[in-house]
Amino acid sequence: MIPARVQDAALRLPSAPAYLYDLPGLDEHVASVRRALGAVELYYAVKANPDAELLRVLAGHVDGFEVSSRGEHAHVTALFPDRPVALGGPGKTDAELRLPHHRIHVESPNELRRLRATGLEADVLLRLNPDLPVAGAALTMSGPFGMDEAGAAECLPLFDERVRLRGLHTHLASGLDAGQLLGLARTLLDNGHEEVNLGGGMAVSYAEPEARFDWTAYGSGLEALRRGRTLRVEPGRALTAYCGYYVTTVVDVKRVRGEAYAILLGGTHHLRTPATKGHDQPCVVLPTGGGQGVEDEPITLVGQLCTPKDVFSRKIVTSAHIGDTVVFEMAGAYAWNISHHDFLMHPNPAFHYLRS
Ligand SMILES: *Cc1c(COP(=O)(O)O)cnc(C)c1O
To answer: Which Gene3D superfamilies does UniProt cross-reference here (predicted)?
Structure first.
């Protein structure tokens, strides 16, 4: 369901393709997440979408920002010089290890040794990657992320008053529901640490846009486990996915060996999410064209790229005509900023922001 204000704005855009961000929608959503989390701290994982307009809305609700590179750090600290920043990410350079932070999430014993060698003060959370079952996850962070129990044990003697151990950080998987995340939290919080960052990864369903992560259940579940400790979460996708829309138009409709296709202006070089995740991007086709087309039948929506991977949605049942407007939903996270913009040298989309 696309809010009426978004649909109206989409129909009034001066050009396509374009991104349209619903800032009041984001504000309302993050406010409700903030309320549900109670005393649990909320950071936003900037890599999901670093757009400054979105960050300004988020800044009204979150306790801090999680950044994963020198670039994100510079971007966020220029916008919000006084906000706490947690610096994470594998493969931090020496320059990154020298960046000011509220917390730094250390990924390995050798990274901790290099952090010590900077001679600077540091407040560290050790990123643990315990061998816990994460059935049902969209993506698991096994492999190079964080350290196992042996790595963490190797780190412990390296702390002192200058490089301080503040607690643990974990981010085990993405695409988990509240019950699954609480199950993991129960195991992860079974330790003596006074501060634990439980990461992000809250589920976002592209197949069922109305099925939202249960923040109320997660917040009250975490409150029951908190017992006076500092708990923090750092979602990305589940905060910003819903506020973004990619709006474009149909340039051609055709049938190839019986299959119907709509070719849209733009493509997955602007909205890579369905290509990387292999899903159908939810959308509506608004009848603004009235040209040649098909009526209520399965049709595959593709972009202008010369590759069979340039598919937004497969065999969705809809009418589609040349000149119609297509509004893709859930394009607010891991969308524009993960896309290969220069492939084929088509023009970039415009960016528009709904403010009220
Ligand atoms: C990507 C990432 C996040 C955010 O994950 P979402 O699935 O977008 O919620 C949080 N923490 C770390 C360490 C990450 O790498």
So the answer is: Alanine racemase, Lyase, Ornithine Decarboxylase, Chain A, domain 1
DSSP per-residue letters across 191-242: SS-SEEE----B---SS-TT----HHHHHHHHHHHHTT-EEEE--SHHHHGG
Q: Is the pLDDT of residue 136 over 80?
A: no
- Under DSSP, the state recorded for 84 is -
Separation CA 246–CA 27 (nearest Å):
19
Q: Is residue 125 helix, strand or coil?
A: strand
Domain that holds residue 110: 23-240
- CB within 8 Å of 225: residues ≥ 6 apart: 182, 185, 186, 189, 231
What value, to the nearest 5°, has the Cα angle with vertex 236 and ends 39 and 123?
Answer: 60
On the question of pLDDT at 300 being above 90, the answer is yes
The total of structural domains in the chain comes to: 2
Residue 166: helix, strand or coil by DSSP? strand
Q: Rounded to whole angstroms, how far apart are CA atoms 261 and 320?
A: 9
Q: Which two tokens stand for residue 105?
A: 């999430």
Q: Is 22 left (phi over 0), alpha (psi -120 to 50) or beta?
A: beta
CA 240: distance to chain centroid? 6
| pLDDT recorded at residue 74 | 98
Is 331 found in the same domain as 214? Answer: no
Final residue before a domain boundary, out of 223, 240, 257: 240
**What's the average model confidence in pLDDT over 113-130?**
96
- Give the atom of ligand 1 at the shortest distance from the alpha carbon of 237: 8
- Mutational pocket test of ligand 1: of 47, 72, 169, 181, the residue with most ligand atoms within 8 Å of the beta carbon: 47
Pocket of ligand 1 (CB under 6 A): 45, 47-48, 66, 88, 171, 174, 199-202, 234-238
pTM of the model: 0.97
58-89 per-position pLDDT tens digit: 999 999 999 999 999 999 999 999 999 999 99
